[in-house]
Amino acid sequence: MTEKPVINFGLEGIYVDESAISKVDGQNGKLWYRGYTIEDLSEHSNFEEVSYLLVYGKLPNKKEYEEFVKKMKERRELPKEVMDVIKAMAKDSHPMDVMRTAGSMLAMYDKDLNNKEKDATIDKVITLISKLASIAAVTGRFRKGMSYIPPDKSLGHSANFLYMLTGKKPTPTEEKLIDLMFILHAEHSTNASTFSVLVTASTLADIYAATTTGIGTLKGPLHGGADEAALKMMYAIGDPANTEKYIEEALEGKQRIMGFGHRVYKVYDPRAKIVRKYLEERMGQNPSEEVRKLLEIALKAEKLMIDKLGKTKGIWPNIDFFSGPLYRSLGIEGEMFTPIFVASRMSGWGAHVVEYWNNNKLFRPLEWYTGPLDVPYIPIDKR
Ligand SMILES: CC(C)(COP(=O)(O)OP(=O)(O)OC[C@H]1O[C@@H](n2cnc3c(N)ncnc32)[C@H](O)[C@@H]1OP(=O)(O)O)[C@@H](O)C(=O)NCCC(=O)NCCS
Fold it and tell me: Do both 72 and 199 map to the same domain?
């Protein structure tokens, strides 16, 4: 081919696969997991059930649900060597770097590592969903020099995560909120990290290798790292009265406002709407001064951005914008937001790998070469 083809930078607008896992309607601000609306799931379901739904493609009956939950509970403990590595890294590394390394180590304990049969893959996904949450919680404690809190089998997945992280058993409201965040982050079609997971899986590398790729991809501030970056911005604004000045100067300086904009949603992200609703309810529950201020800043920034960029450029709040104040209301610090995203998104990554291996095809797109050809080779002493 000599004529330059149309290049879709960032694969924007390109379909790379077909999938029955989730649908993102970016024009109308809707999201479905396996056909169920995110609003219904976040109100009526829980993370374990949603994970089952994503991975198996249907809601479980009571027996299936109980077996699934039992497996997840039994797999929460981490191997000693993994704990040691977390301890060695936690104080001087970002928790996402710890997650990437410790998550990758889990491959070492899988005696059936390269089995890609559907049932074996699902079993590995259950292990990863269970253990990545423990890795996140343990990392959160060790980075602060705090002691290990063993998992508690009387608690559900998200409540146990919060318990292992904070050492306090959550109230029913706190449990609902952390579980909500796990549900809302569980799946989102071929976003950058899921796509990267699939690229690795398509080589028929093992699922731990694919997951490690996904964790690395999720770290970036244009993707999962936006939640931590949005909180940092709110802290930098400091006082709600400074919001307008800060945002205007940032936009004049061509900076991106983290937690806004999305490749697919050109309207309000439905997940952000849900987080915003629960956050506003939380404000009625006597929040700390810090959380009250953060929400005030967030609401001012939201209004400004919608006026300036929402209606004109289709840049609206995404899920990462209101997550910060909500997590802070649960006592979770900013560096832990993206690790929680990893622990939640494992369900979606896993579901995609199971689906993709059903009909695997190596990913190998093309790039248009713009360099010279047939350049004469000059020996090093003659250059
Ligand atoms: C998510 C994101 C990368 C998607 O971007 P995209 O579809 O590739 O769109 P582009 O980066 O091409 O941006 C299109 C235009 O909108 C602007 N824009 C996009 N997001 C913006 C933001 N958060 N703040 C300010 N301007 C933004 C760009 O500067 C660009 O402006 P221009 O046309 O004048 O050059 C982008 O919106 C972004 O960087 N958001 C902040 C990070 C974030 O919250 N990520 C989490 C997503 S869930």
Answer: yes
Ligand 1: residues within 6 Å at CB? 10, 222-223, 226, 256-263, 313, 315, 318, 320
Residues 279 and 348 grouped into a single domain? no
Residues paired with 25 in a beta bridge? 30
CA distance readout (Å), 278 to 56, 130, 174, 181, 262 = 29, 26, 11, 10, 22
Residue-wise pLDDT tens digits, 80-91 = 999 999 999 999
Write down the pTM of the prediction: 0.96
Same domain? 209 vs 264: no
- For the CA of 251, the closest atom of ligand 1 is 25
Which residue shows structure tokens 């890609």?
116
Give the angle 99-187-71 at the CA atoms, nearest 5°. 65
Pocket test for ligand 1, best of 315, 316, 337, 338 (most atoms within 8 A of CB): 315
* Structural domain containing residue 45: 22-222+336-357
Q: Nearest residue CA, atom 3 of ligand 1?
A: 222
Residue nearest to atom 1 of ligand 1 (CA): 262
Please report the atom of ligand 1 found closest to the CA of residue 261: 37
CA 138/CA 134 separation, integer angstroms = 6
Sign of the Cα torsion 117, 122, 124, 128 reads: positive
Residue 1's pLDDT band (cuts 50, 70, 90): low
> pLDDT tens, 171-191?
999 999 999 999 999 999 999
Half-sphere exposure of 358 (CA within 13 A, CB side): 15
Catalytic residue among 320, 352, 374, 381: 320
Task: Name beta bridge partners: 22.
Answer: 33
Q: What's the structural domain count of the chain?
A: 2
- Amino acid occupying residue 322: F
Q: CA 55 to CA 348: how far, in whole Å?
A: 7
Residue type at position 365: P
